[in-house]
Each structure stands twice: as structure tokens, then as C-alpha cells.
Amino acid sequence: MNTEILGLIAGGLTSIASMPQLIKVIKTKNVEDLSWLMLMILVSGLSLWVWYGIEQQELPIILSNSFAVVVNLSLLICYFVFRNSEK
Amino acid sequence: MNTEILGLIAGGLTSIASMPQLIKVIKTKNVEDLSWLMLMILVSGLSLWVWYGIEQQELPIILSNSFAVVVNLSLLICYFVFRNSEK
Predict the structure, then answer these.
(1) Which of B9, B48, B60 is the closest to A6 by Cβ?
(2) What tens digit of pLDDT does each residue of B30-55 get?
(3) Could you give the CA distance from residue B59 to residue B50 in angstroms, rounded to a whole number?
(4) What is the ipTM, given to two decimal places?
(5) In order of start, what are the domains of chain A with their CATH numbers?
């Protein structure tokens, strides 16, 4: 199998699996299960993966990790927005 | 920067960020926030990333995704063990 297609399928699956948490947080506005510290560590790690993908010129890595950065930055924004609205 | 070291740091950060959920589930034995379907999709995607890493001969991808497979398979096992013990 073409490894780029393999990587795109892999990235598609891991991207799909990351969506329910964001959808749930947006729907319920409940952020008490989120840890801003872990989200920051995760976004840092994912950003480094994007950088790694750019250095290696690998499209599946760039695409899937960029998507994950957007999802987890959104969670981080939700955390700070909804945390304050709860009090 | 050496891209392999960059990838290993990226993988280390995303691996650290995946641990708290597993630790929390093991401590609280509460699995109602887990979705077995999403865990299955995630483990499938992560396994394909390991395969991709092997095809591309990239150690950081193989290591970090293998670790993530172990973490999420553990979550899946916890889900089925603790779900039954709750009833």
C-alpha cells in the first residue's frame, strides 16, 4: 500500500476519535473533566509533530497533527470560556 | 535540530498528555465517560500509524504510537472490566 494513503487513513481515524470530546464539551458546557495543563502539554506536543512533519515533508503527519492542534486549542478555549461562566 | 530528536520530544509530550485519563479511570473505576466505539476507532488509527512508521522507518512515530496503542487498549480493557463491575 502507498504509505501516504496509509498515513492519511491512520490520521483520518485518529482525527475522528478526537471529535466526540469536543462535541460533548460544546454541548454540555461542562469542562470539569478537562485539565488545562494536560491540554497545553498536548498542544505543545502536537505542534512539535507538525514541525516534525514539515521537516520530514510528510503530508499525513502535517495534516492530522494540524487538525489535532485545532481540536485541542478549541478545547482549551472552551475550558477558559465555560469555566468562568460556571461561577 | 535533528528531526529524530524533535519527533522523540513531540512523542514524549503527547504520551505524557495521554496518561492522566488512564490513571483517573484506574483510580476511580468510573468508565461512564469512555466510548468503546471511539476507543476502537482510536486504537485502529494508532495501529495504522505504527504500521506507517515501520514502512517509513521512523522511530519516533513507531515508539509514540505503540505507547498510545498500549494506553488506549488499557482504557478499552478497563471499560469492559469496570462497566460490568458497576452493575
Answers:
(1) B48
(2) 998 889 999 999 999 999 999 999 99
(3) 10
(4) 0.89
(5) 3-86 (1.20.1280.290)
